[in-house]
């Protein structure tokens, strides 16, 4: 009789868990499909055997790992992050339900009777199943699920599995310790506090990785789009030249009648148009393939911010063909230079001595790209590779660690840093052969 009650309580719990999976994944149970009955059978057998024969210190770990496999089987086609998160969220709901049940029973029974009752795993299973059914109806559950899904959307499978595994192990250890190694009166409070603290830590780590991915995506433009941008710049240079000729023609036509008009036109030619042509001419000698577009765009931004920027390109660089390096290498170069220039802009835009220098030169089949800038404050150059370290007051610093990751994965690239008084310079070295 006791065995039948145990199996029945496990069945009720399994059915509620499957219901929770469907709710979290916004799926309907298809009772006509054989898959749902296999799922019920696997979950029931796993739950019963796990809680009957497995060690108390491994129960939660084992059952979540099994449920991940079962969820993947039942809901084929779902993304890996949802398959991993759903069983963990289900365990979270069960923990909330057990917490509610424990609080209620603490007011009815003394701690010893309560502990024996919770360990019987028959009556509590029925009650926890009912409470879980109620808890999953609350909207905050879906907000937590949605938040975790969004934050893990862009994480790689290895990182996602690692995070999930750490969370599962920690839940297992904490529950085992809480229920079997501390005074029973403090069990609920301590267990809850530990869970909250660890949840905050995990969410913070995921959020940091999410920001890092956003920074990476910021520079993840394709080589094709960059080359299209260069074509637009070439057309703009020609159009700008034609506009200049038009203004000169107008000047020659009206010079005899209006004395102020020629001076006005001369001012336009000598300032805005001349400045634009100068910038285009300077960047036009940079090798094509995307790098020219990146530098032109950033120099245009510096001009708008009234930043003193100087560009120097050695003659040997004009013969360099970056396209021969391959799309991946060109894209990596553009990402790194983009990070260098963005950091330089942010470092100088709010200081009086706002000087930025860009220099390209080639020596012994190595292309050197120097980006230097003045700065204020203290630079801890040994910390530049650390995720989150920044030289900017309100920056996040993820661009610096992005550079380190790119360089470490690309044998053609290397990076050097130099600090001298109030001047900081980073150099990207590109092996051309």
Describe this structure as you would to a colleague.
The chain has a 5-stranded mixed β-sheet with strand order 1-2-3-5-4, covered by helices on one side. The longest helix has 32 residues, at 187-218. It contains 14 helices and 5 strands. The protein folds into 2 domains: 2-218, no CATH class; 223-431, Histidine kinase-like ATPase, C-terminal domain (Heat Shock Protein 90, 2-Layer Sandwich). Residues 393-397 have low confidence and may be disordered. The chain is an alpha+beta fold and 433 residues long.
Q: What keywords describe this structure?
A:
5-stranded mixed β-sheet, 9% strand, alpha+beta, 433 residues, Heat Shock Protein 90
Fold blueprint:
Elements (H helix, E strand, L loop, with lengths): L1 H24 L8 H20 L5 H16 L5 H27 L4 H10 L2 H13 L3 H13 L5 H24 L6 H32 L4 H32 L5 H25 L6 H14 L3 E6 L13 H22 L6 E9 L2 E9 L23 H11 L4 E8 L2 E9 L2
Parallel strand pairs: 1-2
Antiparallel strand pairs: 2-3, 3-5, 4-5
Helix pairs in contact: 1-2, 1-4, 1-6, 2-3, 3-4, 3-8, 4-6, 4-7, 4-8, 8-9, 10-11, 10-12, 11-12, 12-13, 13-14
**How much helicity do the residues have?**
55-70%
Series of H and E elements: HHHHHHHHHHHHEHEEHEE
- The averaged pLDDT comes out at 76
What distance lies between the first and last C-alpha atoms, to the nearest angstrom?
Answer: 79 Å
Strand order of the largest sheet: 1-2-3-5-4
Number of helices, where a helix is a run of at least 4 consecutive DSSP H or I residues: 14
Low-confidence stretches: 393-397
- Calculate Rg over CA atoms: 32 Å
The biggest beta sheet is recorded as: 5 strands, mixed
- The dominant shape is elongated
The structure class reads alpha+beta
> How many strand segments?
5
Q: Beta-sheet strand percentage?
A: 5-15%
């Amino acid at each position: 009789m006791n065995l039948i009650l145990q199996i029945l309580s496990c069945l009720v719990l399994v059915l509620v868990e499957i219901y929770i999976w469907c709710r979290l994944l916004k799926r309907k149970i298809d009772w006509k499909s054989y898959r749902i009955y296999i799922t019920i059978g696997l979950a029931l057998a796993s739950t019963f055997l796990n809680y009957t024969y497995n060690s108390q210190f491994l129960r939660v770990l084992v059952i979540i790992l099994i449920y991940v496999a079962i969820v993947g089987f039942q809901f084929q086609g779902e993304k890996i992050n949802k398959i991993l998160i759903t069983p963990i969220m289900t365990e979270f709901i069960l923990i909330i339900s057990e917490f509610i049940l424990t609080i209620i029973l603490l007011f009815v029974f003394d701690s010893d009777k309560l502990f024996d009752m919770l360990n019987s795993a028959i009556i509590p299973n029925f009650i926890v199943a009912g409470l879980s059914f109620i808890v999953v109806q609350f909207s905050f559950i879906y907000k937590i699920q949605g938040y975790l899904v969004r934050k893990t959307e862009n994480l790689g499978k290895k990182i996602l599995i690692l995070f999930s595994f750490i969370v599962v192990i920690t839940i297992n250890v904490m529950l085992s310790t809480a229920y079997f190694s501390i005074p029973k009166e403090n069990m609920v409070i301590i267990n809850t506090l530990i869970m909250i603290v660890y949840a905050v830590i995990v969410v913070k780590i995921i959020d940091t990785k999410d920001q890092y991915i956003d920074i990476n995506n910021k520079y993840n433009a394709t080589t094709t789009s960059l080359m299209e941008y260069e074509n637009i710049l070439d057309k703009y240079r020609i159009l700008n030249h034609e506009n200049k000729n038009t203004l000169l023609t107008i000047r020659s036509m009206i010079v005899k009648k209006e004395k102020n008009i020629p001076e006005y036109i001369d001012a336009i030619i000598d300032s805005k148009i001349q400045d634009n042509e100068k910038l285009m001419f300077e960047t036009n000698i940079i090798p094509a393939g995307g790098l020219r577009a990146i530098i032109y765009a950033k120099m245009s931004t510096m001009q708008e911010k009234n930043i003193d920027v100087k560009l120097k390109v050695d003659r040997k660089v004009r013969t360099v063909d970056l396209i021969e390096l391959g799309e991946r290498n060109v894209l990596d170069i553009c990402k790194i230079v983009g990070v260098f220039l963005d950091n330089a802009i942010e470092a100088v835009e709010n200081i009086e001595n706002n000087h930025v220098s860009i220099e390209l030169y080639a020596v012994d089949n190595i292309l050197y790209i120097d980006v230097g800038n003045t700065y204020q404050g203290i630079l801890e150059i040994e910390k530049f590779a650390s995720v989150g370290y920044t030289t900017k007051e309100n920056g996040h610093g993820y661009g610096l660690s992005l550079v380190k990751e790119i360089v470490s994965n690309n044998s053609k690239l290397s990076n050097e840093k130099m600090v001298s008084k109030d001047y900081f310079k980073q150099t990207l070295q590109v092996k051309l052969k």
